[in-house]
Amino acid sequence: MSGSFHETGGETGAVGTAGEADSVGGADGVGTAGEQVGTIGRKAGRGLRWSLLGNLGTKATTFVTGLVLARLLVPEDFGLYAIALAATTFVMHVNDVGIIAATVQWRGRVEDMAPTATVMAMAFSAGMYGIFWVVAPYFAELAGSAEATPVVRLLTAIILIDGVTAVRAGSLMRGFGHDRLTKANIAGSLVNAGVAVTLAANGAGAYSFACGQVAANTVTGALVLAWAGLPFRLGFDREVAVRLLRFGAPLALGLGIEAVLMNADYVIVGAVLGPVALGFYLLAFNVSSWVPSVIGTALRYVTVPSFSRLAEQRPESLSLGVQRSVPLLVAFVLPVAVVTATLAPEIVAFLYGEKWAPAAGVLALLAVLMVVRMLISLAFDILTSAGATRATVWMNLGWAVTLVPALWAGTHWYGIRGAAIGHALAGVLVALPVAALVLSRAGVRLAPVLPALVRPLLGAVVAAAVTVTLAGLTSGVTDEVTGGGVTAGSAFVRLCVAGGGGLLAYVLVVVPVTRLKRFGARVIPARAR
């Protein structure tokens, strides 16, 4: 599975009929903007619940696997894998020329375009893999570790699976059938964990990651084909191909730039500082990606089909959907970012141990990028749903033009922390303003969003102050017991006390009192009160 809708774990789900996917506001698609948003919102809500469940399951498995691998492997192994991951992320974004997104956004019967789209996805995936097989040694050398070449070649092989399953994956997401998607993702993650840990325990090093991922994608891809409910036929219709390329080519370019944005730091850090420093950076980046991976990926499975159906109706329906979505997204992400930024040393020490301590300073800075990535990802999905794929190119290009020199300068200036600073500054000062501009030019009204952001931003400030204060008070007690330093035990205490206090302060500021009272009335039985 590829494109902007998944990571390298694949996806599947139950496909609905064309009428089921396309009807909005009743059988004829007629209704007010609010009714249309409500109808699609209910379908998206069901899909989101399954997506969140699936992502929590897969990420929990990945998280535990990462903890085990961090103790079995050394930072250099993580660095070699980071190089292969950078290459794979890029080819996964561009290899199907936007076929998955085109399938989700397709105006008409999916069955009519599926044979042509399947041929195109398979052909482009095979061609892209051939290119990267040849350039893998040069890419690895550019990233500072020529020995990563075979790992790059192995891991990028997952795009061949993606080419076969791309159209089926798109049709599954189009139908909001995320129950089977969840089962397939979890199955793949379990296979990944078993293979990766077994190989790492037997000295396979960086190959542990790559082999586990290839095995996972094979299993998930097989389930996609089995559960899609879309006949596997091959054919070619020139008119359909032109429509797909007109939509997908700009999207693939935008996604390719997005892949550069998310992986240029791996290449630059590896080239300047070597694989060991890159291993520390990768660990920090992975932790900062938990929320975008769990919540962001789950949202992406439903936002594109949801916004696509809204965009088919009235322009105000899309704007209203965006206005409701952005404040909710910000409200959920900000408290996690605050706790991550303020308690980064405790998170790293508790989860991974003292040998990974250099990653803590990077993690604190990348917490800012966490919020930026979530908002940019949502903006990308909105533009894709509206058919404004060329705007995605300009949005990501504007970010990339500033990010690459910022990463290069930051890494030379301040090491892996400098790379994180460059990433965060480029995101806040360039990416977010450009995203707001292109959304406005696409007809999405963002002004009504601003008042709804005041309370979450205020809550974040209060939560940060409370977390820092409680962490300082708690450290005084734990240091007397441990003799100073951040141990796993003292880190756990600070995470519970300071992190819990900060999250509670955030909730008290952000959630209205009336809603808290209603929640309390439901949770606490009448007799207990």
Automatic annotation (TrEMBL):
InterPro entries to which the protein is assigned, alphabetical: Poly_Biosynth_Transport (IPR050833)
Annotated compartments: Cell membrane
Residue ranges of the region described as Disordered: 1-30
Signal sequence coordinates: none
Keywords linked to the UniProt accession: Cell membrane, Membrane, Transmembrane, Transmembrane helix
Coiled coil: none
Bilayer topology annotation: Multi-pass membrane protein
Family statement drawn from the similarity comment of this UniProt entry: Belongs to the polysaccharide synthase family.
Protein name: Polysaccharide biosynthesis protein
Protein source organism: Streptosporangium oxazolinicum
